[in-house]
Amino acid sequence: MKGNLHPLTKFMRLSLKYFKKYGFEIVEGDEIESEWYNFDALNVPADHPARDVQDTFWIDSQDKRVLRTHTTGSELHYIKSSALKPPFRLVMPGRCYRNERTDMTHEHTFYQIDGIAVDKNINLTNLVGILSGWIKDVLGNNVKIRVRPHLFPFVEPGMEIDIMLADGKWREMLGAGMAHPVVLKNMGIDPEKWNAAMWGPGIDRFAMLKYNISDIRRFQSQDLRFLKQF
């Protein structure tokens, strides 16, 4: 009996093929992360609601370990532990966890492709070009996107990218921006010499659009009738 690739696996491979074509190294990290790498290193304030138990799965409050809420922290962990020196381009795919109520567009477990490009002259124009190129590569050249300013503690300036749905409504799809100087310092990179573009889309919502799936929870359902379609 012939097996089938999971739709998220297919979408992840398609996405990584795009980034690899443009010189990004693919790295992986641990799903259990320290509080420092998951929050502190990313300039997330101590009183930020994302640290609360209603948003984050804490493994051990004494050891300050969590199920990672994004692959950004694991990315920083890799950069710091490997003493990676700029310029460089990385993407880190992986599974993430957030303690939130599930519905048609939200899941407690999801997949992300975090990315960072560090160079002397990289800017927001380059960032938008990288991300719009990826979106069109995986969803087609006719997809309509818009860019809006948004506040994230780990980037300055920050932005969100929306995609127009078939009904004409916009859906927020990913956050991105230029790395905050504090975050660069925590990587061991001099913010006076280097800039960094960062982004961290969850791919499940993109895969929903790619494969015309109406409920994000179907990815975790293990329903063979659903999976065999792919």
In terms of topology, how is this protein built?
Elements: H1 7-21, E1 25-26, E2 32-34, H2 35-38, E3 58-60, E4 65-67, H3 72-81, E5 88-97, E6 109-119, H4 124-139, E7 145-149, E8 155-164, E9 170-179, H5 181-187, E10 195-199, H6 203-211, H7 224-227
Helix pairs in contact: 1-6
Explain this structure:
The protein is α+β, with helices and mostly antiparallel strands and 230 residues long. The protein has a single domain (7-142, 194-227), classed as Bira Bifunctional Protein, Domain 2 (BirA Bifunctional Protein, domain 2, 2-Layer Sandwich), CATH 3.30.930. It has seven helices and ten strands. The protein has helices spanning 7-21, 35-38, 72-81, 124-139, 181-187, 203-211, 224-227; strands spanning 25-26, 32-34, 58-60, 65-67, 88-97, 109-119, 145-149, 155-164, 170-179, 195-199. Strands 1-5-6-10-9-8-7 form a seven-stranded mixed sheet, with helices on both faces. It has a three-stranded antiparallel sheet with strand order 2-4-3. Strand 8 (155-164) and strand 9 (170-179) form a beta hairpin. Helix 1 packs across helix 6 (203-211). The chain is globular, with a radius of gyration of 18 Å. The mean pLDDT is 91.
Protein traits:
alpha+beta; BirA Bifunctional Protein, domain 2; three-stranded antiparallel β-sheet; 7 helices
Concise structural overview:
Helices cover 28% and strands 27% of the residues.
The CATH architecture would be 2-Layer Sandwich
Average pLDDT reading? 91
How much helical structure, as a percent, in the residues? Answer: 25-40%
CATH class: Alpha Beta
H and E order: HEEHEEHEEHEEEHEHH
Strand content: 25-35%
Number of helices: 7
The total beta strand count reads 10
Pick out the low-confidence regions. Answer: none
Largest sheet: 7 strands, mixed
Summed up, the domain count is: 1
Structural class: alpha+beta
